[in-house]
């Protein structure tokens, strides 16, 4: 009985068992499974070992043995099939975003909003100026182009049979070597999935569940329905034949997340299918050996569907991506996917003016994207190779009855998938779930004793506070035992009151750190931006720490420390109006434009210089504009402040007019006479920068990172050991 059970345990079943065991191991032991990452990476490296040599010799052999007429047919028919399959993928890129539920976003500032993307060197990627460099750096597109050119030249060489025979022997040898590595799949699969399921957190999955659900649904629909039905519509193969020949490639794809390593597996699988149907010939084998490695260099199904992340990002930020922009998304996206996936997504996010900080989630979930996408890409490659071979070698058939039947099945499956996704997401994601004022729940750790003035001191208080003040400011602070800091009551995220009526923010935490280092307590005195020097001149404020920018006008009467942050000029507008303010040219075309801003804000001069037709509307606080108390077309702030306010008011969006991004330096303000205090503060700021304090506070208050802290991954073992 045992021997009979052992015979039925096929390789595919063994891989599935190892996948389930790996997932179970990750759930049971959690982060302890991270040690298996090295085993999984080693397995992927072994799979890659023979791939580039195989690509080189298979293309040279496949093209070299063709005639000029055959090669032209292969190129024209291959391109036609590629465009048809891309069209199918594009159709689902249009449809799947319809599943997204209504949502209000919570978004922090990101440097990606203002930084330029590093461009891909397409010449290096596609032009093999030095073939040995391309081989050494695994530049597969350049390697492929080199092989195509050499293969074309080989077609007209006399006595080429000798070298073609050598190439054929090399192809066979490399396939056998790869098959030996594939036998390690159960071990590699177990290690990869144990590490993945043991280290990914439920919080990470929760934040991305809309994208994951829609992307996975699209992948499964295309992989198990649309693509197989397309193949069966044009050939005599049955649905189960396509899935049977695809199973090894799909299982390996899910385990490794690497399409490149599937080339030999797909070659072997399609050959077996042709042999089983008694339609295997030397011509078809050679055609397969040529098509498969070339097709890998084009964006495959799983990679094309990754473009769903762009409409998801627009939805996540409560931004619009109209349907008429989807052709741009698809064309630019497919061209970008010839290079890096991450670079392509970054380019598209910036192209459509979507905050690109969400790309961090895309990168974090690359391990899932790669595996699910590779599943679709594997059957996509198989379908392309079968259809292209059928077309080139004469067994492609047009059966209108079967085509209509398959079309109805595909439409029914599509409708069911869209409905199921929509119902699930709208039942689990509420519109208000993203509308959370996280800034109001943030806290400052390790504070010193502080007294907060809600109003500026009157004349009597000023007289009491300044009595006996003379000499060096730093010594006076130490003697007094109190550091008096000027603050703005509503300057998110630098100085503001949270939900517990505590004064917090980037500069407030810096003030606590400064007071602790000096060895004193704190008193916070409110100030107004148009009267920054008032408290300093009255002697009741030692230093202003409230996101103050350095300007030439202010330098005439005030002294600034060295800059501690650079900020970017931005406008805050209603969500539906953001496209009107994306470019400087669009703003200049507006005849009348009312812009709200706090009096004394230094950005006024910058904006008036570039847009002289503007009219400024004074407001006491940014909340006056955002709440509708003051009517204006836009709010003038820094991008860093704008994102913080839009967390509280999600119906608004931050726009940074392009192409020129105006920047200013923030610094702390002291009296012009306090030179010794200035030297101390500059040295102190340098120390805090070296110690990583400035970066830590910037990450927390401006970028919104590590707000909830790092939590250990839950696992069954920890629960059992309690």
Could you explain the architecture of this structure?
There is one protein chain. Strands 1, 2, 6, 7, 8, 9, 10, 11, 12, 13 and 14 form an eleven-stranded mixed sheet that branches. The protein has three domains: about 10-435, Proton glutamate symport protein, CATH 1.10.3860.10; about 440-565 and about 675-700, D-Maltodextrin-Binding Protein, domain 2 (3-Layer(aba) Sandwich); about 565-665, D-Maltodextrin-Binding Protein, domain 2. The chain is elongated and about 105 Å long. About 60% of the residues lie in helices and about 10% in strands. It is α/β, with parallel strands linked by helices. Residues about 1-5 have low confidence and may be disordered.
| Principal-axes shape call | elongated
CATH architecture of the largest domain: Orthogonal Bundle
Number of domains: 3
**CATH homologous superfamily identity of the largest domain:** Sodium:dicarboxylate symporter
Low-pLDDT ranges: 1-7
According to DSSP, the number of beta strands is 14
Structural class: alpha/beta
Please state the CA-atom Rg, rounded to the nearest Å.
Answer: 32 Å
What about the largest sheet? 11 strands, mixed
Mean pLDDT score: 82
The CATH topology assignment of the largest domain is: Proton glutamate symport protein
């Amino acid at each position: 009985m045992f021997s009979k059970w052992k015979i039925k345990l096929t390789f595919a079943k063994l891989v599935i068992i190892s996948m389930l065991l790996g997932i179970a191991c990750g759930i049971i032991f959690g982060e302890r499974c991270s040690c298996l990452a090295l085993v999984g990476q080693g397995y992927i490296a072994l799979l890659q070992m023979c791939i580039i040599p195989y690509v080189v010799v298979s293309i040279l052999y496949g093209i070299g043995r063709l005639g000029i007429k055959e090669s032209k047919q292969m190129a024209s028919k291959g391109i036609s099939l590629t465009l048809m399959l891309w069209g199918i993928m594009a159709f689902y890129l249009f449809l799947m975003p319809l599943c997204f539920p209504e949502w209000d976003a919570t978004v922090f500032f990101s440097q990606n909003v203002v930084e330029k993307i590093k461009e891909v060197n397409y010449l290096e990627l596609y032009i093999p100026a030095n073939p040995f460099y391309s081989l050494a750096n695994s530049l597969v597109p350049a390697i492929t182009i080199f092989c195509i050119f050499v293969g074309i030249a080989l077609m007209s060489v006399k006595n080429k049979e000798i070298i073609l025979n050598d190439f054929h022997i090399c192809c066979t040898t490399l396939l056998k070597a790869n098959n030996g590595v594939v036998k390690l799949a159960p071990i590699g699969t177990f290690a990869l999935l144990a590490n993945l399921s043991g280290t990914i957190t439920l919080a990470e999955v929760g934040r991305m569940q809309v994208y994951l659900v829609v992307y996975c649904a699209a992948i499964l629909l295309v992989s198990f329905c649309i693509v197989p039905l397309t193949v069966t519509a044009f050939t005599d193969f049955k649905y189960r034949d396509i899935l049977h020949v695809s199973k090894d490639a799909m299982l390996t794809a899910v385990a490794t997340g690497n399409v490149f390593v599937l080339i030999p597996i797909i070659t072997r699988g399609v050959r077996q299918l042709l042999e089983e149907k008694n339609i295997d010939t030397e011509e078809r084998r050679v055609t397969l050996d040529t098509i498969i490695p070339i097709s890998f260099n084009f964006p495959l199904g799983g990679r094309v569907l990754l473009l769903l992340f762009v409409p998801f990002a627009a939805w996540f930020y409560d931004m619009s991506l109209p349907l008429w922009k989807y052709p741009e998304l698809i064309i630019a996206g497919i061209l970008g996917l010839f290079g890096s996936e991450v670079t392509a997504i970054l380019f598209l996010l910036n192209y459509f003016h979507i905050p690109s900080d969400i790309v961090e989630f895309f990168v974090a979930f690359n391990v899932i994207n790669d595996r699910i996408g590779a599943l679709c890409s594997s059957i996509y490659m198989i379908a392309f190779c079968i259809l292209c071979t059928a077309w080139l070698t004469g067994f492609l058939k047009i059966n209108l009855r079967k085509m209509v039947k398959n079309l109805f099945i595909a439409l029914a499956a599509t409708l069911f998938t869209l409905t199921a996704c929509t119902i699930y997401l709208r039942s689990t994601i509420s519109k208000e779930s993203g509308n959370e004022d996280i800034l109001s729940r943030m806290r400052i750790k390790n504070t010193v004793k502080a007294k907060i003035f809600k109003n500026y001191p009157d004349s009597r208080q000023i007289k009491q506070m300044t009595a006996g003040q003379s000499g060096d400011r730093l010594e006076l602070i130490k003697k007094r035992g109190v550091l008096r800091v000027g603050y703005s009551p509503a300057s998110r995220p630098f100085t503001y009151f949270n939900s517990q009526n505590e004064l917090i923010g980037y500069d407030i935490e810096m003030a606590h750190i400064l007071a602790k280092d000096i060895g004193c307590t704190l008193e916070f005195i409110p100030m107004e931006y148009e009267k920054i020097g008032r408290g300093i001149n009255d002697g009741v404020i030692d230093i202003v720490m409230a996101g103050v920018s350095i300007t030439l006008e202010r330098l005439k009467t005030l002294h600034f420390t060295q800059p501690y942050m650079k900020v970017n000029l931005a406008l805050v507008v209603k969500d539906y109006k953001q496209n009107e303010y994306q470019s400087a040219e669009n703003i200049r075309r507006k005849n009348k434009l009312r812009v709200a801003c706090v009096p004394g804000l230094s950005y006024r001069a910058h904006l008036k210089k570039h847009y002289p037709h503007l009219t400024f509307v004074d407001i006491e606080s940014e909340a006056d504009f955002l709440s509708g108390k003051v009517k204006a077309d836009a709010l003038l702030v820094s991008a860093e402040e704008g994102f913080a306010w839009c967390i509280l008011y999600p119906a608004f969006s931050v726009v940074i007019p392009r192409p020129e991004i105006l920047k200013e330096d923030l610094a702390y303000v002291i009296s012009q006479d306090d030179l010794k205090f200035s030297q101390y503060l500059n040295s102190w700021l340098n120390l805090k920068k070296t110690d990583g304090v400035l970066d830590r506070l910037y990450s927390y208050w401006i970028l919104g990172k590590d707000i909830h802290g790092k939590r250990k991954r839950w696992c069954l073992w920890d629960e059992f050991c309690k």
